[in-house]
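Internal tracking record. Fields below are filled automatically when a chain is submitted to the structure queue. Please do not edit lines marked as system-generated. If the sequence contains nonstandard residues, flag them in the REMARKS field before resubmitting.
Queue: standard
Priority: normal
Entity type: single polypeptide chain
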Amino acid sequence: MIRKLRARGEAGVTLVEMLISLVIFSLVIVSVDGSVTMLSSRSNGLSQSSQSINQLQVAEQTLVQAVHAANSWCEPVPIPAYGCVTATAAPNTTANTLTFTATMSGSTTTSYQFQITGNSLVMTKNGTTSTLVSNLDPSSSKTGFTATSVTVGSTTYWNDISVILTMDSPRVGAAHVTSTTVADSDVEVWNVEYACSIAEGSSC
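SYSTEM-GENERATED OUTPUT FOLLOWS
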């Protein structure tokens, strides 16, 4: 008996072929979905890291601008006076508090306190408190603020502040943490530098 063969297009597909096609299609969808999820996760991580860096830089700039104009220290320099300071004790070594007044715009005096408390950098300006950074690494409480000085004759001028802050992203204690450090080891206190140069000349 001669059986007439029909063209493949007329016969359609078998159930087995359809199941194989569905399995392959499902594997492709799962693979693409996994790739998109991974890329999205990486994108979110980069975005969070970028935001952390920007936040840390803004906090650093705010602090440095105020320090440049400082004229009277409470911490980390003990019992200071305007400009020239005679040191009677070592500077504060806790490195987590910076308290001073600053002369802004020629005559406006502003009181500042920058404090590392817990995982936050908090600024108190003329009694108003705001949080500048909320994901600080615990190491910042040890390295945050350090005062340096120059001694001319019998007078010590506290004319520099070192600021080192480290932020953890996405948060402190996360399983995968990216740490970002902003360090400014030589923030000059311009009012103290000026007072020193007036009193001592080029030896400052």
